[in-house]
Amino acid sequence: MLSSASSQATFTAMDHSTEEEWRLIASETVANWPRVAEQILSMLAQLESITDGFAVNQLVHSLQTATRAERDGADDEVIVASLCHDIGKVISVANHPRIAAEILRPYVRAEVASMIEAHQDFQGKHYYSYLGMDPTLRSNHVDAPWYSLAERFADDWDQTSFDPSYDTLPLEHFEPIVRRVFAQPRSM
Predict the structure, then answer these.
(1) In terms of Cα–Cα distance, which of 186, 26, 12 is closest to 106?
(2) How far is the C-alpha of 77 from the C-alpha of 85, rounded, in Å?
(3) Which of 41, 79, 144, 177 is buried most, with the most CB atoms less than 10 Å from its CB?
(4) Three-state DSSP class for 8?
(5) Using CA atoms, how far apart are residues 188 and 176, in angstroms rounded to an integer?
(6) What is the CATH number of domain 34-181?
(7) CB count in 10 Å sphere of residue 98
(8) How far is CA 155 from the centre of its chain?
(9) Contact at 8 Å (CB) between 45 and 85?
(10) In whole angstroms, what is the distance from residue 41 CA to residue 113 CA?
């Protein structure tokens, strides 16, 4: 049953809900999809406070990665994924690739989400040996249809994006693309 004063569902348990209430909830959910992009932009801004010993903060790193992807002719989904690839560090550095991939997954094609989920395995080529880890983890994905995309992302854009003097595009430049990609999920 709907509350007439607020046009909100009144059920306190889903097994007491009505079709009318679920139609309202679905309508409100669709109307509020733009908040996703705004939350993404807010999380990206939070990366500015995370440096973790790098020469640039994680926002600058993400902006440089997206700038390189854009300048190299990547499509909007890959550019946004490049921008958001480390967004999970706002929550957990240890699990950041999976967090970022899961945020992106409903909004980008499967190969792009897979690229982000596996990006640490690809990055390992450049530094894992220094930490006593296996630098060949990308070979676990060699048969994946997205392997070459992940290789390009890791080798050409991500691992090269720690340069304080690089001509980096600002977050404002990417806001329209972020809003476009996150405007509506491809899947739910």
Answers:
(1) 186
(2) 12
(3) 79
(4) strand
(5) 22
(6) 1.10.3210.10
(7) 15
(8) 18
(9) no
(10) 18
- Least confident range of 26-40, 56-70, 98-112, 165-179: 26-40
**Main-chain phi, psi angles of 127, to 5 degrees:** -155, -10
**161: nearest Cα among 76, 51, 67, 94:** 67
pLDDT digits (tens, 9 = 90+) for 116-150: 999 999 999 999 999 999 999 999 999 999 999 99
Q: Nearest 5°: phi and psi at 24?
A: -60, -45
Distance CA 174, CA 29 (A): 25
Of 176, 97, 186, which is closest to residue 138 (Cα–Cα)? 97
Pinpoint the residues of the chain covered by CATH 1.10.3210.10: 34-181
pLDDT tens digits along 58-104: 999 999 999 999 999 999 999 999 999 999 999 999 999 999 999 99
> 10 Å Cβ neighbour count for 24?
15
Question: How do beta strands 2-3 and 8-9 pair?
Answer: antiparallel
Identify the sign of the CA torsion 18, 19, 25, 29: positive
Q: What are phi and psi of 54, to 5 degrees?
A: -75, 165
Q: What is the model's pTM?
A: 0.91
